Known about the structure:
The chain is an all-alpha fold. 79% of the residues lie in helices and 0% in strands. It has one domain. It has eleven helices and no strands.
Amino acid sequence: MLEPITTVIILAAVGLAAGTLGSMLGVGGGIIMVPALTFLNLSPTQAASTSLIAVMSTSVSSTIEYARQKRIDYALGLAMAACAIPGGVLGAVLSEYLLEDTFKLYFGILLILTGLYILYKKSVLKDHRVNRRSLPLQVAVFTASFGAGIISSLFGVGGGIVFVPTMLLVLGLTMHRAAPTSQLTLMMTAIAGVFTHSALGHPDYLQAVVLSAGAFVGAQIGARLSRMTKEMLLQRLLAVILMTVAIIFILDGLNLRY
């Protein structure tokens, strides 16, 4: 059992790292925070809901900074959020009842495929032109947004792991545009998920406050660093993160991670 001061230091450091990385890549940072909270012996539902509070803090902070930089596509971000928010509410409710193993297994496989696709995106999509008014494309984007909302609240990882690839691969946005827009969508989705989790009594608020403080500062750092980072490097970072999360999900789905 860790000393309280040690726990606070670890959580603040985890929040800072997660906030920085999450803001740069638009993924929320929960992929770092949930494993850390699990290590600190929180139940899966507690870990997810507590992480989501910090994800909300990250997304609020980075959205403020990205808004100052004028890099957010508001129309797209709000449209995706409109579909993701119901998913966020549903995910928080399902977290009490849903068996996650099979879902994690198949979602992990999907993340690996997505990560590989992003790594080789330029060779696959040499002349990628998108008609955003296409009905099939809109259905695909908004269905993915709803699913991202469920994932956001169910696992506490933030829907950015779906929002960003969707914006990159389906809509053809650049990484420097997708990450900021994802943060706006993620912020609204996380708020809905946090309110639902709180109504159900899931989060550990003390740990959430410490995580959120670190994440808020990290999000400001990440938003500034993203302007100085090459887009290819950001895409490679995203691919590595997706594959890392995929391995964790697959191991959990097969009951091989202890």
